[in-house]
Amino acid sequence: MRKHLVSSADLTRADIESILATAASMHDVQRREVKKLPTLRGRTIINFFFEDSTRTRSSFEIAGKWMSADTINLSAKGSSTSKGESLRDSVQTINAMAVDALVIRHNQSGACQQVAGWVDASVINAGDGTHEHPTQALLDAYTLRSRLGDLDGKHVVIVGDLTHSRVFRSNVLTLTTLGARVTVVAPPTLMPAGIASWAERDGFATGWDLDAVLAGDDIPDAVMMLRVQRERMSGGFFPTPREYTVGYGLTRPRVEALRARKDGVLIMHPGPMNRGLEISADAAESPNSVILDQVSSGLAVRMAVLYHLLAGEETAA
Amino acid sequence: MATAGLPEPTSPPLDPAGKTVMGASDIARCLRRMAHEILERNKGADDLVVLGIPSRGVELGNRLAAMLEQVEGRGIPAGSLDITMHRDDLRHQPTRAPMRTHIPPPGIDGKVVILVDDVLYSGRTIRAALDALADLGRPRAVRLAVLVDRGHRELPIRADHVGKNLPTSVSEKVQVRLVGHDGIDDVVNIAGGESR
């Protein structure tokens, strides 16, 4: 395995299989009374979060602690960043403390790639701007596999704000690498420019009409709703929240229609949810929803990622 | 849950220059004797839990448990104990995905755990297994059963039940193959080292 995890595009099918297999064992650890493995004893992991996060940060922290690493959390607020220190100076300062891994979330796309070139530590991308979020894609793949088995030929529909979604970018890469068929649906204003050539290269389908995709011949095995990211919504991408819900929300009628077509279509959401906007409370609470499974999978997958990046032999950068 | 695929066990080819030291019937006889020894030592099958160490220890553990069941006429819980996360040489080799740990339903608290592995060599695997076990509960006793003891211990660890003591040199390789794991007939080969 390589030293950094910056992009899902870096992961081969064998890499992903190996991480998911490890995650299955780590999932068992979560059910134990003593949730502690000695694997990363003596390693230091810094979670450097320049953007807010609940689940990603806490799961990286718990994952590190359960594997006996020392984990420290830093956020932009309360660090020297608020005094105007540059990203480069901040991470090099941290690096000088001989840490083993830097888990970074940043609001600028490509920030992790840059940091990887500046430090000796392993860099793990926990979300960079609108670029990628590779551990989210891995945990989604893990959740899907634990319910659907092998993903070869399975159909996953991803719905929502594709333009700003790092979850979508990483998921398309990981899911297609595992052989799943992916259809992405978004209002035209939130469809990234040039998606046609991109879809052709990576082998996924696109659509504007959610109802048509859900009612299509290719019945989805899972529907993944993306969050409407209010912090990135200053461009007037849709007229009103209500209109978005009508066109692209996973509403109760849509859930009922899906359940009528096929049993056990999985409902996913990376969180945090805007209930009543992109996903209705009925959808989130329905028996088909695996949203909380995604969270516990996240812990197992992040333990697996830390293991593969940090436990093995020292690799050259 | 957690049914995502686990890695297929690997089975590298046998060294053709190797010498066979145990055949299928030798291995079966050894295991049967070990099963009787375990029962004799434990004065019956009470509280026995058999845990194999992946990958071939699991197959051997299952066979031992089946033989114990035959002799005692009742079910003996058998499972597996992966030790990957507890190894002391993680930093010296590429990472590999851990295998499955399966603790049978009664758990291991207050039980007599029989750890099973194919080859006992440095003893480091067993040290890791003892650590892994301590995280899972507190057995009343832990005993070690191995098919082959090839010597060269690096830690103060010994086996309670040994199929065959096999004097080897460090440069030799002991290769165990089991039909349920490797798809070829049971065999223990010894290969490499200086010609003798």
UniProtKB/TrEMBL annotation, chain A:
Matches recorded under SUPFAM superfamilies: Aspartate/ornithine carbamoyltransferase
Pathway: Pyrimidine metabolism; UMP biosynthesis via de novo pathway; (S)-dihydroorotate from bicarbonate: step 2/3
Pfam families attached to this UniProt entry: OTCace, OTCace_N
Gene name of this polypeptide: pyrB
Quaternary data: Heterododecamer (2C3:3R2) of six catalytic PyrB chains organized as two trimers (C3), and six regulatory PyrI chains organized as three dimers (R2).
HAMAP family reported for this sequence: Asp_carb_tr
Name this polypeptide is given: Aspartate carbamoyltransferase
GO biological process: 'de novo' pyrimidine nucleobase biosynthetic process; 'de novo' UMP biosynthetic process; amino acid metabolic process
Binding site residues for carbamoyl phosphate: R55, T56, R105, H133, Q136, G271, P272
Entry keyword set: Pyrimidine biosynthesis, Transferase
Domain Aspartate/ornithine carbamoyltransferase Asp/Orn-binding residue range list: 152-309
Residue numbers binding L-aspartate: K83, R166, R227
UniProtKB/TrEMBL annotation, chain B:
Record field: catalytic activity: UMP + diphosphate = 5-phospho-alpha-D-ribose 1-diphosphate + uracil
GO-annotated biological processes: regulation of DNA-templated transcription
Region (Disordered): 1-20
EC annotation from Swiss-Prot or TrEMBL: 2.4.2.9
Phosphoribosyltransferase domain segment(s): 28-163
Key words of the record: Glycosyltransferase, Transcription, Transcription regulation, Transferase
UniProt xrefs under Pfam families: Pribosyltran
EC class of the enzyme, as a word: transferase
GO molecular function ontology, one term from the record: uracil phosphoribosyltransferase activity
Short motif (PRPP-binding): ranges: 113-125
PANTHER family referenced in this protein's UniProt entry, alphabetically: BIFUNCTIONAL PROTEIN PYRR
UniProt family annotation: Belongs to the purine/pyrimidine phosphoribosyltransferase family. PyrR subfamily.
This protein's name: Bifunctional protein PyrR
Origin species: Nostocoides jenkinsii Ben 74
Gene from which this protein is expressed: pyrR
